[in-house]
Amino acid sequence: MVLLAFNWSAFGANVGQFILSFSILIALHEFGHFITAKWFGCRVEKFYLFFNPWFSLWKKKIGETEYGIGWVPLGGYVKISGMIDESMDKEAMKQPAQPWEFRSKPAWQRLIIMLAGVIINFVLALIIFAMILFVWGEEKLPVANMKYGITADSMALKVGLRDGDVITKVNNQELKYFDELPKRLLLNEKNALSVTRNGKDTVINFPPGFLKELSRNQLKNFVSVRFPNVVDSVDGSIAKFTSGQLLKGDRIIGLNGTPALYYSDFAKQAKNYKSQAVTLTVLRNNTDTVQVGAKLSDAGKVGYSTQSPLKFITFEKKEYGFLESIPAGVRYGVNRLLEYIEGIKLLFTSKEHAVSDNLGSVISIGKTFGGSWDWERFWTMTGLFSIILAFMNVLPIPALDGGHALFTLYEMITGRKPGDKFMEYAQMVGMVLLLGLMAYALGLDIFRLFK
């Protein structure tokens, strides 16, 4: 019998961050609808975080509004009297319109109510990005500082990249910061990389279909920063030395007589010696070369942690004052939105970007939090998802805020209000489309898990 190891700690961190992040985004989105509806005198019957089919985890009525928490963490809602929404309360719509109902309000007020959630999500993202820059600043890796070059994984090797290459241009445009590489690659249909190898310049052209394969793997470990393999600490619960031992500051430069000057070289070679005795060649005190015997674990580990790349490579960090962070956060948020729109456009215009490779459900979203609790990453992802939530909700699809806004704009331009029956059917069609898309995304994620 084979038992598969499961990292419950990483799972818990992902789930916890996902729930907290989306609770913030959904609650504030729905609060936008709620506060503007109340502002214009509409009666709000329900305010729910998460959906509550059949039952609620918690609910309490305060005044005319029932506040509650559902058990399906896929969204939330406010039920405004006199509005055709996901509740599909047809009986109420058959009654004469009342002054406190949504349908009794002027079109411009209804438009503001419908767009308030989207606006709050977008503004929230800009505030989050501004505060991230204010608290943590901005850290980037200049390509000019990558003195050891890159580490290429199997896909990078397949396309022609090599360990130690320095990528200087993407599609003949300078790559100033290594951090920009993923988006520069994924937001193009064709790619050519200019690299410096052993002091000479060469060009790597991606063959047709390669970007699609790269996109499917989400650029995971395609290329990474190469750095020396210097011991920071030894884990006594894993390390098993047969002769000598590793000390803090030792630099491992070889494995069983084969050079392994960098951590990536050693990690690749160690996979071939799982559960075996090996000899490590170590440079100690930068002067002495010693041999250390060790038995690798079942996972091919020696039992030590390496010193951070920050010890060997200089990153560029920019600090922001409070006033500086505001325009910088706005620029950052707008750029992320434009990149997201460009990515969506490529899904429908490029053969190298397939919807099935890029669509994901709550499973994919949860994984993006990284498996450990990191507040900077948490707020960065929350800001990005806030922008995405704003964009997706403003799309002119029935059942989304954008669909309702579109019908309201039609009314304001033509002077004719769409009939209640039309709105009911449009809402039903929109809900079927959205539920179908969610089911498709969930199915893709389940398939990926088993694959």
TrEMBL record:
Keywords of this entry: Hydrolase, Membrane, Metal-binding, Metalloprotease, Protease, Transmembrane, Transmembrane helix, Zinc
Enzyme class: hydrolase
Residue span, Peptidase M50 domain: 18-436
GO MF annotations in UniProt: metallopeptidase activity
Membrane spanning residue stretches: 6-28, 111-136, 378-401, 422-442
Keyword field contains Protease: yes
Bilayer topology term: Multi-pass membrane protein
CDD domains: S2P-M50_PDZ_RseP-like
Cofactor: Zn(2+)
Top-rank taxon, per record: Bacteria
Record family assignment: Belongs to the peptidase M50B family.
Descriptive protein name: Zinc metalloprotease
Source species: Niabella pedocola
The organism's taxonomic lineage, starting at the top: Bacteria, Pseudomonadati, Bacteroidota, Chitinophagia, Chitinophagales
